[in-house]
């Protein structure tokens, strides 16, 4: 697979503010297709790592759902979700769900353009590195993934780091919290559109805040996200389900809600409650 690991000598600050050398490693591939623009391969090991930003202590942690939102997970049950073989077999405990070796899960309902709030925590005990550390993902319509990963002092190919549009666009910055701490994603999604002849007339766009820090600002999505392959679009309905992965890492999720974006100038005589 021509996987390449690059060793990079980096500088980090210790508690006294002194610059100290630290050895990090980036993984990736050079035999993959070139992304649009012709500068980087998919999962290119030479692509710059996003600069690190320390987020605030909290942002939208445990944010209550707005009145027009659908609460997908409130820590009590899996009533809004289904597993690959029917019922969800993930762990349910203390207000969160945790992955088990029972496959991916997805919402029972489908959604169009939306605002999604989700909170996750990668394992407090660090096992592995790169893509083997806290790997999961928010997969929109089963096609477009916003990466979930432990990217705290854990370099990997930049387009596979936490909050990346997987295999396409790294985040503007790395706003990851330490392993085991709860983190937030607030995702605004605009899906792609096709005309009656199945010609793409509008690509998808994603706006993402990670722990309150904007990491994608209405960023164009190049197509379906996959490992090592060129992103391309294939026509699909304007609505789809939300999927959470199972990659063998015990990632936790809590407080998941979603609301439609709606349209401007669509007022009504009564407020929505």
Description:
A hairpin with a 5-residue loop joins strand 1 and strand 2. The chain has a single domain, classed as Exo-inulinase, domain 1 (Jelly Rolls, Sandwich), CATH 2.60.120.560. The strands form four sheets. Strands 3, 5, 6, 8, 11, 14, 15 and 17 form an eight-stranded antiparallel sheet that branches. A five-stranded antiparallel sheet has the order 4-7-16-9-10, with no helix packed on it. Helices cover 0% and strands 36% of the residues. It starts with a strand and ends in a 13-residue tail after the last strand. The chain is globular, with a radius of gyration of 19 Å. It contains no helices and 17 strands. The N terminus is likely disordered. With 273 residues, the protein is mostly beta strands.
Blueprint of the fold:
Elements: E1 3-13, E2 19-29, E3 70-73, E4 81-83, E5 91-93, E6 96-98, E7 105-107, E8 114-121, E9 136-140, E10 144-148, E11 183-190, E12 193-194, E13 200-202, E14 204-210, E15 213-221, E16 242-244, E17 252-260
Antiparallel strand pairs: 1-2, 3-17, 4-7, 5-6, 6-17, 7-16, 8-11, 8-17, 9-10, 9-16, 11-14, 12-13, 14-15
Question: Low-confidence parts lasting 5 or more residues at pLDDT below 50?
Answer: 1-25
Q: What's the helix-strand series?
A: EEEEEEEEEEEEEEEEE
CATH class: Mainly Beta
**Share of helical residues:** under 10%
Rough outline? globular
CATH superfamily: Exo-inulinase, domain 1
Rg from Cα: 19 Å
Can you tell me the CATH topology?
Answer: Jelly Rolls
How many angstroms does the end-to-end distance come to? 54 Å
Instruction: State the secondary-structure class.
Output: mainly beta
Strand percentage, roughly?
35-45%
Mean pLDDT across the residues is 90
How many domains make up the 3D coordinates? 1
Number of helices: 0
> What's the total number of strands?
17
| Biggest β-sheet strands, sense, barrel | 8 strands, antiparallel
Q: Label the CATH architecture.
A: Sandwich
């Amino acid at each position: 697979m021509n996987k390449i690991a690059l060793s990079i000598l980096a500088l980090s600050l210790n508690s006294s503010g002194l610059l100290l050398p630290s050895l990090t490693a980036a993984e990736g591939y050079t035999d993959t297709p070139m992304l649009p623009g012709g500068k980087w391969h998919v999962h290119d090991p030479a692509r710059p790592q996003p600069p690190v930003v320390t987020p605030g202590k909290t942002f939208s942690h445990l944010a209550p759902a707005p009145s027009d939102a659908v609460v997908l997970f409130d820590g009590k049950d899996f009533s809004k979700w289904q597993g690959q073989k029917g019922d969800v077999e993930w762990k349910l405990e203390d207000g969160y769900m945790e992955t088990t070796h029972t496959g991916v899960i997805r919402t029972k309902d489908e959604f169009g353009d939306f605002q999604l709030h989700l909170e996750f925590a990668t394992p407090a005990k660090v096992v592995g590195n790169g893509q083997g550390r806290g790997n999961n993902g928010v997969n929109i319509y089963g096609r477009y993934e916003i990466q979930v990963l432990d990217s705290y002092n854990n370099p990997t190919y930049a387009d596979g780091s936490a909050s990346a549009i997987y295999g396409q666009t790294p985040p503007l910055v790395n706003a990851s919290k330490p392993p085991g701490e709860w983190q937030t994603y607030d995702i605004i999604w605009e899906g792609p559109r096709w005309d009656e002849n199945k010609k793409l007339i509008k690509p998808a766009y994603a706006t993402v805040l990670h722990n309150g820090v904007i990491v994608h600002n209405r960023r164009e999505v190049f197509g379906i996200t996959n490992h090592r392959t060129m992103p391309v679009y294939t026509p699909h309905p304007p609505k789809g389900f939300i999927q959470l992965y199972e990659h063998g890492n015990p990632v936790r999720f809590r407080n998941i809600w979603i609301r439609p974006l709606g349209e401007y100038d669509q007022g009504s005589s009564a407020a929505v409650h």
